[in-house]
Amino acid sequence: MNAQGISYNTERPQIAISEYGRNIQVMIQNLKGIENRDERSRAAAFIVSIMEQMHPEVKEVDDYMHKLWDHLYVIAGYDLDIDSPFEPPIPEGEKGRPQRVEYRSNYIKFGHYGVYITNMIRSCSKIEDDAQRAEFALILANQMKRNYLNWNKNVVNDQVILDDLAEMSDGRLVLPAGTRLIATNEVLAKEQPQPAATGKKKKKKNQQAPAPNPNPNRNNKKKNKENKEQ
């Protein structure tokens, strides 16, 4: 519908970046009609200054002028031959797909213990000294129990941890049956949040009220009465 020069927004081209409005888009599209390159470049710089005045908060962004010039190219449909202080942006359709992020391929049979425990067990298994290897094995077993309780808050039998340690080390780290590890309640108690202090002091019970101030006029009246009787 176009009656007497009136047109509706539904009949106009879609706005590329709505925050600048339709007038800025029309001004940028008219840049392409300027034949002289120098004049076209000066007009583009003037439009960028208007865009900056429309949104002064953009100055809080690092390299905000680069962002404004990129928006100029986007609104123009990336088809703008001007002298720009920055490299023209690449159209969205030509950027290509981002590089695929590869996930770790290492498989851990006992995932609840974590990869670090697995690597430490492998390193500890290579220790030749029996006493030193047993000492490190006990430290690893206690840490394995902590990691286990992070996933499962129920009580775990120490022998289960010892059996897993022996299996993960291919029989190199074997602790004697009945070895006592860190207590379960001790591990869980450290994980429970402590109540925050309120900062309010409790009032003392049976606190006696301060004695009332004596009336200074009372003694004066008593002395005057005694003087009159004399």
Strand order of the largest sheet: 1-2
Task: Please report the distance between the alpha carbons of the first and last residues.
Answer: 120 Å
> How many DSSP E strands?
2
Helix and strand content put the structural class at mainly alpha
Radius of gyration: 41 Å
Largest sheet entry: 2 strands, antiparallel
Overall 3D geometry? rod-shaped
Instruction: Work out the helix count.
Output: 8
Encode the helix/strand succession as letters.
Answer: EEHHHHHHHH
Features:
single chain; 230 residues; mainly alpha; 2 domains; 8 helices
Task: Give the SSE map.
Layout: E1 2-3, E2 6-7, H1 21-31, H2 37-54, H3 64-75, H4 115-125, H5 130-151, H6 158-168, H7 184-191, H8 216-229
Antiparallel strand pairs: 1-2
Helix pairs in contact: 1-2, 2-3, 4-5, 5-6
